[in-house]
Amino acid sequence: MKVYIVTAKEMYDIDNYTMKKIGMDGKLLMENAGRAVSEKVERLIEKSDRICIFVGPGNNGGDGFVIARTLMNKRYDVTIVQVVPDEKITGDALYHKNVFVNYGGSILIAQQESEVHDVTVNSDVVIDAILGLGVKGDLREGLITAVEVINEVANRVISVDIPSGLPADEGMEEFTSVQADFTIVIEAPKVSAFLQHTALYYGVWDTVSIGLPLIAFQRYAKRNVWGYEQFKDCMPRRDPYSHKGDHGKGLTIGGSATMPGSIVMTAKAALRAGAGLITIGTSEKVINRIASQCIEATYFPIHEQNNHPSIPFEEFDAITIGMGMGRSGNAAALVAHVVEQTDCPLIIDADGLFHVKTDLAKLKVRKSPTIVTPHPGEMAMLLDISVKELLITPFYWSMKIAQTYNVYVVLKGKHTIITTPEGIQVVNKSGNAGLAKGGSGDVLAGILLALVMQQRSVFQALCNACFIHGKAADLLVEETHSDQDLMASDVIEGISKVYRTLS
Predict the structure, then answer these.
(1) Binding site annotation covers 419?
(2) What is the pTM (predicted TM-score) of this model?
(3) Binding site annotation covers 441?
(4) DSSP for 329-389, written as a single string
């Protein structure tokens, strides 16, 4: 099942569509949310746990009243703490507050630090239902106090939909937020679950469904997660009568006297990922050194003093360039030549990105797909911004460069973001910290090359390649490695483990 990623506005639009167009009452949606979250909470707690539910204004607080009633009715020890005055509880939330009271529940209104501290320290589990998606700017004094006390003394914290105080969207650097151990996300994760500076506040997270219609997500949500189900559904299967020509003839250009290993890893990864034929175009000085490391590839010598080598580009189905090629003037001329002269999918990685920065407009006029694969430092370089600025708004900047220059963007990281020139965005779900080593990007470039030659949809190929890369690392760490000792060359060997899950 597709997991959508939403902004706060998109989630509000989906809710409004559900209520106004579909006709579902807001009180019913709140009931569904509270019951779904309660069911998940029961799997995370013990019957003997003392549970404190903090509620604030708005729908998140309303969900908290439903959770409290549901758990109380199942004989859990529940205390509900309201951290805003009574007049702040209105609408559907007030309705469910009154139902909770009519069930025999009692509410402690606590806004003083000492009151919040006492009830928190005497609880085994805190359920955070203070604030939802509407956070903009600094929290009010009473809410900040509750958040800070929870973070300081709570034993375990389960947040409802989003940790209170955390922005749902990208772009906000300063905030005060609950640090959750577990977050039960309602329907769809928010953008901040995939940002480096906000993702950790969620702790472990999982989603629950409350009955919002699929058509609403299809109408308003612009991003989704790419995981095993998507990989399995669209990864092409080989025809038993196919031959090597059916699976693409790829050219990978790069390597140098000081970095010969990069291009080897790219070529080996491409072959392991399913490419039919791979040719390595590299400095004639290093061919003999690297040929023994990748005996399945053929080689094309590139003379370092020849800025425009006679490479038969028309013979290849896709090309990747940049891995380990260095930053000399001759390398820059070679990249420019490849960009201008090729008429097939072109993947630009590593030093190739450094060289295209001076004339990104040339990418826009290419007739065939262009894929750029920067890590955050390279992306910031291309955009002339700081890495910090990029990481606060990576979805925005990925979209901007993709649409401005008509390229596919694979922004690598813990949550790799794949963006099409049309503005479709996907976040890859696989991968672990073992990939944070030199050479991992070279391996990904090879997998990207192989899969671009296997599938009609470039976008699906990119998504599947990123998933395979990360999943290979995941399976290796689960079975034989750790995220400390994992090497890029290990990931190449792990590709077969991912493919075997399809059999």
Answers:
(1) no
(2) 0.96
(3) yes
(4) HHHHHHHHHHHHH--S-EEE-THHHHHHGGGTHHHHT-SS-EEE---HHHHHHHHTS-HHH
The beta strands (E) that lie in 174-297 are given as: 182-186, 204-208, 223-226, 249-253, 277-283
Is there a domain that residue 16 lies in?
no
Amino acid at 127: I
Is 416 a known ligand-binding residue?
yes
Question: Do 300 and 411 fall into the same domain?
Answer: yes
Q: In the prediction, which pLDDT does 362 show?
A: 96
pLDDT confidence of residue 307: 57
Q: Is 442 annotated as a binding residue?
A: yes
Q: Which of 83, 85, 48, 47 is nearest to 64 (CA)?
A: 83
Quick one: average pLDDT of 473-490?
97
Q: Is pLDDT of 291 > 70?
A: yes
With respect to residue 415, please indicate whether it lies within any of the assigned structural domains: yes
414 annotated as ligand-binding: yes
423 labeled part of a ligand binding site: no
Could you tell me if 201 and 245 lie in one domain?
no
Residue 440 labelled as part of a binding site: no
Residue 98 assigned as binding residue: no
pLDDT, tens digit (0-9, with 9 covering 90-100), for 381-415: 999 999 999 999 999 999 999 999 999 999 999 99
91 known member of a binding site: no
The response to whether 137 counts as a known ligand-binding position is yes
Give the model confidence (pLDDT) of 168-208 as tens digits: 999 999 999 999 999 999 999 999 999 999 999 999 999 99
